[in-house]
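Task: encode each sequence below as structure tokens.

Item 1
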Amino acid sequence: MSLPVLWLAALPALLGLGLVAWAVATVRRNAGLVDVFWSLFYLLATLVYAAAGPAPAARVALLLLLVGVWSLRLAGYLARRNWSAPEDRRYRAIRARNQPGFAWKSLYLVFGLQALLAWLLSAPLAAALAVRAPLGAPEFLGALVVAFGTTWESIADAQLARFKADPAHSGRVMDRGLWALSRHPNYFGEFCVAWGFFLIALGAGAWWTLFAPALMSFLLLRVSGVSLLEKDIAERRPGYRDYVARTNAFFPAPRRRP
């Protein structure tokens, strides 16, 4: 099976999962539950590529391990956090802008779009599983970068969850642990995961999949990540301006003096 055909083979499966996610979120009236399914799109795509592609067992095992650990950990964390929580304000704003009929419009505005985007960004995974080549240095380096990103993101999420669980921290800014090095260490972890997958694809000669981590980086920094979350956070949390003055937005670095 050629790479274009293999890559396209995952699209119907991802759209099907998007339909399931839409049905669940519609019943619960919470479009923000799409975030729970985000990493699962990648896992489903990897399973399709592994089943239909010609990659040897070692290559398949490496990708399934890396994607599986990252995907299931992130989906589980977001499910615990968001399942019974009110709809995130970002999705409430989308809902308000698209009334009446948002329940149906969300099928393509939110869930279909997320499935399509995940499919595009899964190109490095398709490329990595479309070859019969043995594992080499780029794959092992990429695996280390993915493992680092997954670990970094996991630690950041756990630190934030513990901080928020303490009622004494209500309204305060989390600026401890990894959050003292970056205002968005969880997004930095996602950044590392995306570039790690690209390095693995590079070992298969798929340099053209550079668009995937580049697009993910743009989304994290300029669209749905840092820029969107920080648009009005200083108005809601008075201590955030001081946090901005002392701490890098994205890439970890020692805290600056005020």
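Item 2
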Amino acid sequence: MENKQNKKIKSFAVSTISKMEDVHPMDAKNYSRMKYGDPIATRRSAIQITSHLFRQPEITKYIHADKTIFITSSAYGYVPTASYSVTREVTKLLAASGVKIDRIKFVRNGDFSTNHYGTLSAEERAKKMTSRNIHLTEEDLVKIKDGFVLVIDDIAITGSHERKIHEILSQTEARDWAFIYLYKLDTELGNKIPETEEHLNRADIKTVLDLIPFFRIYTEYDLKLRLNSRVLKFILTTEPESFYDVSHDVAVKHLKEFFALIDDKILADVYRAAMSPDGYHADPKFAEGLHILREEILERRGLSRLFNKIMASIEENLNKETETPVLA
């Protein structure tokens, strides 16, 4: 019987990057837009990942065996990550191809509203992995018994998250598992953080105003904004954190312009996410952004009543645990 504690990690990527020049500028821009919620870029990324996984015998052997594939994204709490949206699209593509699919979720508790990962060093990432509580629910633990789990993420930088998930799965009764990414940085480049990942993340997104094309309501082809934790932090942060960020005064000006252009429904969705149990509303660094958001909501006749309803439900939402993403 295989010793799962010593099981080798099976990890695949559409592209492995050893230098930034390996990524075509158009691919970098698509990746950047995907990370910040663009539904079209998200679908393109999912198509690339799905096509690649069908070329991996370690994965297709379970598909050909007509077995259910248990799919999950990287771990998240209430507000999902960009990889959740990509995983959602991959699931649709596999299901349309006749693959038997079931979804599971790695639940992440704690440390949601701190710096986005693009500004963290390898040491800081490793430390955060030890401080976060990542786990599967009892229901999912039973579900994956003797099954194959496919973990989908947009990028692998240092492998700290991969190792954490691998460790957890090694303690379950899952038969096998594998990881698949859009991009993976080689070891040397992966240690050059935060610059490496941040160049990719911000290739096409420099200010909050660059998000405007994504923040619309699509009525065709199931294309809608994929609000995620990165987008939420980006919107609510008014102090510069990255070498791409504008000054505080410019950020505030842009944020007011941005909120003024946003549809009522999406504006309300952003506020619900900010007030979720993940705790963005309790972090002082988001206080000014949240204040500007509230002011915009209260100025809109149609949203003032909704604002009161949201506020009335906040205490209830904060006092109960939930595993349902805000914009599933």
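Check on item 2: The chain has 14 helices and seven strands. Residues 237 and 286 are 5 Å apart (CA to CA).
End of task.
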